[in-house]
Amino acid sequence: MPLQATSGAASYDAFGGGAAVVPAYIEEVFATWLYTGNGSTQTITNGIDLSGKGGLVWIKGRSGATDHALYDTARGATFDLVSNSAAAQTTQATGLTAFGSTGFSIGALAKLNTNTATYVSWTFREQPKFFDVVTYTGTGANRTIAHNLGSVPGCIIVKSSSAGDDWNVYHRSLANTQYLNLGSTAQATTGATKWNSTTPTSTVFSLGTDGGVNRNGTTYVAYLFAHDAGGFGLTGTDNVVSCGSYTGNGSATGPVISLGYEPQWLMVKNSTGTGDWQIIDNMRGMPVAIADSTLQANSSSAETSVEYVSPTSTGFQITSTSTQVNTNASIYIYIAIRRGPMKVPTTGTSVFGLNARTGTDANATVTGGQTDDAVLIKNRGSTDASLFSARLIGTEYNATSSTAASASAGVTILQANPWDVMDGVKVGTTSTITNASANTYINYLFKRAPSFMDVVCYSGNGTTLAVNHNLTVAPELIIVRSRNRVQEWRVLSTALSQTSRFNGSLVFSSTSLAVFFGDGTNYIAPTSSVFTLGGSGDVNAGTGTYIAYLFATCPGVSKVGTYTGNGTTQTINCAITAGARFVLIKRADAAGDWYVYDTARGMTAMTDPYWLTNSTAAEVATLGSVTTVATGFALNSTILAAINVSAATYVFLAIA
C-alpha cells in the first residue's frame, strides 16, 4: 500500500509507488480582489475554487464607511457576519449569493455593491497548512474541536453565529489563557475558560466553558490560520502564512520582521495596549517607505492612507512611530500571508502585456492582461522621456534617459493610487508623458513571477551589500536605479565578463559601453536568493535608496543573453515557441543605444519602429531592422547596422 502524503517534502515523494501529491501554491488559495460596485449583481473571478474546496470571503468597502462582511462555505452563502460587530449572523439574500469554482457572486446589498463605490475582497481557501473553517455547536463543557489544518494553528478566530457574542481570537504569541477581541481595540485579556488553558494541536483545538466560544446550544464558526507549516511549492517545504509577534521600539526605524518571504497581506494588532486591527495588502497599496492603504477589522471606517510598514524580500519593517504599530515596548501580534505567484509561468502573456494606446486627457487605466507590478511607458511621438515605475514605489517613477532621482507628480502622470486595479496601472489626466489627448503611447506591463522577473527595493550601506530577492533563480539582467539620488541607471548582465563586484555593467540611460567600477574586490555572481553589491554610489551609497528590476531566462517565456554581430542577417534563438513580443538590445563592447522593439507597434517588417531608453527622442518609424520569428527574433544590418555590427557583442532581453 503506498504511503500517504504527510508533511513538508514528504508530501511529494510518492513513496511506495503512490500518486504524487500535486504541489500547492499561494495563488491557488488566497486572493486580494478589488472591484467597483454596480448596484446590481456581479461575479468576482479571482481564480479561487470555493465551491469545490471551501473557504472564507471577507469583503470591506474602501471608499465609504461600511461594515465588514464575512461569508464562508461552512455556514453557506447569504449568511453574513460583521467583524466590527458582536451581532449574530444575518441572512442577506442580496449579499454574497454563491460560491463558485473560480470565485464568488454578489447581489445588490449596499455594503457589498453600491454603484461606483470601491471594495476589497480577501478570499481564503481551505488548504492544509494554510487555512481551515470549522463550525460546531456549543456544549458548555470543556471539550476539543477537530480541524483539518494539518498543522498546529497559529491563530484561531471564533464567532458565535447564532448569538450576539464578541469575536474571540487565540494567537500563538499569547498565553493559552489569553484572548483578543477582533471587534475591539482592547488589549489581550486573561480568561482561562476560553481555550481551557490548552494549546491547540495539529488535529484539535480546545475550548473551555466560556459562553463566547462554547455556550450550550449556540452555533459557532472558527477560522484557523497555520503558522510556518510548509506544505507549499514544488518541494512542499515553503511557508505561506505566519502568525508571529514583534516588540515596538517607538522609532521610525522600527522592528524588522523576518518571514522568509515577502508578504502580500498583513493584519497587525497591539496585544499589550489598545489599538485597531490594521489590515494592509499590496493590491490596495503596501509600497516601500510610502503611505499604505489600511482598513481596520474592528471598524466600519473607510480606507485611510498612512505609512505603517514597508515590505522586504524576506519580511517587513515597521516604518512608523504610530501607536497603532510601534509603541515602545508594546507587543504586536500579526498574521502575514506570502506574496505570489509561486508557480513558474509557462506563457509570456501571463506575465507580460503590451498596450499601444492613444491618450485621453482623462484618468485612464492602462491594461496588460494580468495583475501587474511594473510598467515602462513611452510617448511614441514626443521628446518626453520614457517612464519606469513599480507597485513597490507607488506613484514614484524614474525617467529612463535621466539621472534625476525618483519623482512623484500627483495625478497628472500616475494617479494617486496607480496600482490598485486588478489589471494594469492607472495613468493621470493631461501629462504628455503618459496620457495627453491625441498622443500615442506604448506601454509595457510586467508581472513579478519566479524565474521571470522580480522587483526589489533596498537601502545602501556604502560597503558590501547582499540584497535578497525572490526570483528563485540567479538573475541574469539587473537594472538598478537610485530613488533619492542623482545618479545613472546601472545594468548588470551576467553574460558579460566580470572582474569586480557588480562590474561589467552598462548604463540604461546612456550609450556607454560596459564599464568596470566598484570597490576592487572580486565579483560575486548573483544567486537564486541574493545579488551582491560593492560600495559604488550608483548602486550602494550609504545614504541611497534603490529599486532593482531583475530578469532571468524562463523557458518559453523570456530569454536574457548575448549575441555576436555578423554584419548581415541572423536569427537569435530564444527558445520562445510563440516568438518574441518584446526585445531590448544594447551593444556592450562599444558605445551604443538601448533599442526597444515590440509587436504592438510592429516587428513584422524590418522597417517597423524602435525607440531608445537612453534618449528622449520620439520613436524611429522606418529603421527597425528587428522582426519576431517563431523561436525569438531576427536581425538585418542592411537597414540598421548598429544592432548587428560584425564581431560586436550585444546583450538582450526578449519576452514572448
Summarize the structure.
With 656 residues, this protein is mainly beta.
Walk me through this protein's architecture.
With 656 residues, the protein is mainly beta. The protein has six helices and 48 strands. The chain has six domains: 8-14 and 129-225; 26-125; 241-338, no CATH class; 348-446, no CATH class; 453-551, no CATH class; 558-655, no CATH class. The strands form 13 sheets. The chain has a six-stranded antiparallel beta sheet. Strands 18-26-20-21-22-23 form a six-stranded antiparallel beta sheet. Strand 46 (626-629) and strand 47 form a beta hairpin. The two termini are 45 Å apart.
Low-confidence stretches: 1-16, 516-520
Hey, roughly how much beta strand do the residues contain? 35-45%
- Overall form: elongated
Structural class: mainly beta
Radius of gyration: 26 Å
Count of the separate structural domains: 6
Total beta strands: 48
Provide the spatial order of strands within the biggest beta sheet. Answer: 10-17-12-13-14-15
Oligomeric state as shown: single chain
Overall mean confidence score, pLDDT: 93
In whole angstroms, the N-to-C terminal distance is 45 Å
Helical coverage, percent range: under 10%
Largest sheet: 6 strands, antiparallel
Question: Tally the helices: what do you get?
Answer: 6
